[in-house]
# Entry
Amino acid sequence: MSLIAIQMTPQNIYDRYHAHVYFDQQTVERAADICRMAGEQFEVEVGRVHRKPVGPHPCWSCQLAFEAAEFDQLIPWLDAQRGSLNVLVHGLTGDDLADHTDHASWLGAAQALKLSIFQPREIA
# Structure
């Protein structure tokens, strides 16, 4: 199952977030530089630069984890820095499927995610 999240501007409505910077072999150095700079300039946790698709991500990516307090400064900066790179931004609510669909937005072009890795949450 794959789905492209609705294209909308990221909104600061969750407590915590991930931003996944997508890249390929030609843009890996630019993406790594952006992620490194984000880690230096903002209170974000910079993940590994994955040179293969990982999890639901259809291409190479690097994850930035951050709190709502960083959102209003980080997201416009990331949008200005990304050039032609696409960035998935999503809230962290504990429901991985919803986080990557209902709680997701994009800087750049939306990509189809590999959502089959997520199990729907059980209703108690």
In short: The first helix runs from residue 28 to 41.
